[in-house]
Structure formats: C-alpha cells, structure tokens
Design a protein that fits this description.
The protein is 23% helix and 26% strand. With 385 residues, the chain is an alpha+beta fold. It contains nine helices and 15 strands. A four-stranded mixed β-sheet has the order 10-11-15-14. A three-stranded mixed β-sheet has the order 1-9-8.
Length: 385
C-alpha cells in the first residue's frame, strides 16, 4: 500500500452522500473479502486494517462530520498521524481488541465453549529394579501403584447414594453461560464455562461422604507386569490403563515403568553380548587347561590352549542375551587375564628360579611359534655391539 492515506469514502467504495446503512453494507462486503483468515494474499491484511479504520470514522456521525470538514491532515484533524484513527496513534479504533475481534463479533463469530465431556486420566510413572537374570530371561513381577480410582460408594458421580444431581440453575444444564455486552456495533454475545458447575451442567447438592464430592479416591493396587526377555537398564514398559481414572467416565491413563537393572558379579553387558573376565594362573596359561566357566545357561567347559596370552578372547556364539524384539541372541565373550602370584613359598620361588634359568638358555616361544624374547631381549638386540 502507498504511505499516502486514501479517502475513506474511496476505501469503502461509497459516495459522500452514503447513508449509515450503505456504509455498513459496503464494509461488511469488503471485510469478508479481505479478512486475513479468508484472503491469503500479501496485501489483504493492510487492506483489511484500512477498511476498519475507514468504517470506524464514517459510521460515527461526529467523527464523519469532522473528517468531512478537515480530511486526514487538517489542522484540527483527529485522524492524522498520532490521532486516534491515524498510524502511530496507539489507540484501537474499535475499542475492544482490534479489527480481527470486531470482524468476529460483527459477522457472528467469537469465543464459545462446549460443555465439558469425558477426560482421559493422567499417566503415572514409576521405577522398578530388576536382578540381572530377570532382565535377561524376563518373567512376571508384581508392582504396587497408588492411583486415583472412581469412588466405590458413589461410582464416580460425587453424589451421596440415593441423592440426585440437580440441574445447575446458573446455566440451566448447558455447562456454559451467555453474556451480552454493548459495543460500537451493538450487542456482543460471548459464552464461557459456567462458574457454578464448572461446565458440568449439574450440581451435587448432597456430596458423597467418602470422596467429599470429588468422585475419585486414591487406592493402592497390586498389578502384574510382564517383563519381556532382553530388557536393559532404562527400558520403559507401558501398562495400558494402569494410570489415574478419567473424569466424567473418561478412560484411565497409562502406567509407565522405567527399569533399573542391577549389575552382575561376573558378567558385564554390552548390548546383547555379555563379557566375562577369566583369571588364569601362570601355570594354566603356560601349559593350557580345560576350565569350567559360567554362562547364562549354566556351566560350560572352555579349552584353553597352552601359551595363551593375557587379553586373548574366546567367543561363545549364542550364549548372550536375547533381542527384546526377537531375532536371536548375542554372544558371550571371555577375556583371559593372567594372575601373577604375589606371596610365594620358598619352594615355589626355587622352582620359578629354575624355570627362569631355562628361559635364558632356551627362550620360550609365543602362540605364533616366534621366539619370545621379551622386552629386555629385544632391547639387547637393538644395542650395537
């Protein structure tokens, strides 16, 4: 739009001799066409504001008379810059919320409410600690939860048994009240939630002695929960209908259980795999052995080859944890750790010294068959002679 104000009669498309009804009719027709909710063009909003400003001036006989004498920029004009109808005046020309609000009022819109209906109950959340084996294999657990339930005495109505709910005298059972206010364009009708019955449309004259009219009471219940195999720390289980009861016969909320898995004394979990650290003494590592190790399914025999080195891993396929959504199991990964004795008997020390002397004469070889010289042997080879 141009920054120069257009003549208000031109804006509404009416002659200067137009009657109030003609001005009103022209405004209604144009406002419908340029309302921003209907017209999505870039200039629609500015055009709509321009129409509102023109209509506000021309519909009022006193303002119209002043405008006819001085126009937009006369010395005494209240419609120029900073005036009540001009840009930057900071005054709403309609007096109750702007152009959009008057359009809603003028053409029959405006805020309305409906009578309150059924409402879903609130969801609840709790935590549950599991042993490592429970998380691996799953099973059934009993949990206790405190939640809102319909009052057993009044069945959730909030009224004492034998009494009747009374129709609200304020809203006559509608759940909302109608208010009429006078505006620049006449009467404005608004509707809001009835303050007396809170939108129910009915009043409890004789409240239930158990729930004191609320219709709900807190109860602690024991629920059976199914733990699927393979759950992990932080897994969340949903129990449909395990939350608070709904209002006005609405459905109950859900219960969400966040799992905490206790650590295992031997196993460490990594996704669907489990890790086990296997300690071996020097003789077992050097000579090799067969040793029983724990698995999730029971004890298994693992063959350790002679000369095994620290950090060597063995993978037991399918001995891990089941995928919670199916699709097989992970593995068990066994890592060798060599335990060096700290407190030797004199006889053990003598044997180890004899063994060390043989190593100097005939260095031992590693698992790959290469001569195992150790750090100092390699260091000696690196020193030029």
């Amino acid at each position: 739009m141009s920054t120069t104000k257009r003549d208000y009669y031109e804006v509404l498309g009416v002659p200067r001799s137009a009657t109030e009804d003609e001005i009103k009719r022209a405004y209604r027709q144009l406002a419908r066409r340029y309302h921003p909710d209907i017209n999505k063009t870039a200039e629609a909003e500015d055009r709509f504001k321009e129409l509102g400003e023109a209509y506000e001036v021309l519909r009022d006989p006193q303002k119209r008379q002043t405008y006819d004498r001085f126009g937009h920029n006369g010395p005494r004009s209240p419609f120029g810059p900073g005036g009540p109808g001009g840009p930057g005046g900071g005054v709403d020309p309609f007096g109750f919320g702007g152009v959009a609000d008057i359009f809603e009022t003028f053409f029959g819109g405006g805020p309305t409410t409906r009578r309150a209906g059924p409402q879903r109950g609130a969801d609840l959340k709790m935590s549950l600690r599991l042993e490592f084996e429970e998380a691996v294999f799953g099973g059934e657990r009993e949990v206790t939860v405190t939640r809102d339930e319909p009052c057993p005495l009044c069945s959730g109505t909030g009224a004492e048994p034998g009494s009747e709910l009374q129709v609200c005298s304020t809203c006559q059972g509608a759940g909302q009240v109608r208010q009429v206010q006078q505006s620049l364009l006449g009467q404005v009708v608004t509707r809001s939630v009835c303050p007396r019955c809170d939108g129910e449309g009915q009043i409890v004259e004789d409240p239930c002695r158990e729930c004191r009219g609320s219709g709900r009471m807190q109860r602690t219940r024991a629920l059976q929960v199914t733990i699927p195999p393979g759950v992990d720390d932080g897994t969340q289980i949903r129990v449909p209908g395990g939350g608070d009861a709904g209002e006005r016969e609405g459905p109950p909320g859900d219960l969400y259980i966040e799992l905490e898995v206790a650590p295992h004394p031997f196993f460490r979990r990594d996704g669907q795999d489990i890790h086990l650290e296997l300690p071996l003494d020097v003789a077992q590592a050097a000579l090799g052995t067969e040793i029983e190790i724990p698995t999730l399914g029971g004890a298994e025999t693992l063959k350790i080859p002679a000369g095994v080195q620290a950090g060597r891993t063995f993978r037991l396929r399918g001995q891990g944890i089941a995928h919670v959504r199916g699709g097989g199991r992970g593995d068990e990964i066994v890592t060798v750790r060599i335990v060096v004795p700290q407190d030797l008997t004199p006889y053990q020390r003598e044997l180890l010294e004899e063994l060390a002397a043989t190593f100097e004469a005939d260095p031992p070889r590693g698992e790959d068959g290469e001569e195992h010289k150790g750090f100092f042997g390699k260091l000696r080879d690196a020193i030029p002679h």
